[in-house]
């Protein structure tokens, strides 16, 4: 970030006041969403937000999943439609992520 030794995953400058704002992912708080977490909200990432407050999440490409029955890994999953479906050749079954939802909790 300009004029700082700090780093951020996202830096934004306000067009009105010129203030720099930032969002950083706190790597110590990254978690995996697993089968036993199904249909429940679980904290999977924590952000350090300075001057901004996230209000929405738009998942894109780059997610990874592992099939429960066969441990087959699926890379570069596209969640732009809030769901993903594929076929696991090893277990001969359909796999997917359906009805993806999110929420932000302010601490």
TrEMBL record:
Keywords, in A-Z order: Metal-binding, Zinc
InterPro entries, A to Z: CXXC_Zn-binding_euk
One GO MF term: zinc ion binding
Keyword Membrane included in the entry's annotation: no
Stated family: Belongs to the UPF0587 family.
Stored PANTHER family: CXXC MOTIF CONTAINING ZINC BINDING PROTEIN
UniProt name for this protein: UPF0587 protein C1orf123-like protein
Organism: Dinothrombium tinctorium
Lineage summary: Eukaryota, Metazoa, Ecdysozoa, Arthropoda, Chelicerata
């Amino acid at each position: 970030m300009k004029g700082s030794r700090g780093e951020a995953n996202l830096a934004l400058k306000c067009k009105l006041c010129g203030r720099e704002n930032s969002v950083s992912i706190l790597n110590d708080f990254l978690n995996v969403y697993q089968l036993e977490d199904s249909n429940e909200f679980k904290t999977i990432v924590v952000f350090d937000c300075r001057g901004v407050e996230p209000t929405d999440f738009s998942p894109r490409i780059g997610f990874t999943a592992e099939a429960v029955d066969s441990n087959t890994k699926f890379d570069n999953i596209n969640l732009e439609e809030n769901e993903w479906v594929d076929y696991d050749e090893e277990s001969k079954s359909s796999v997917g992520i359906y009805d993806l939802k999110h929420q932000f909790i302010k601490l």
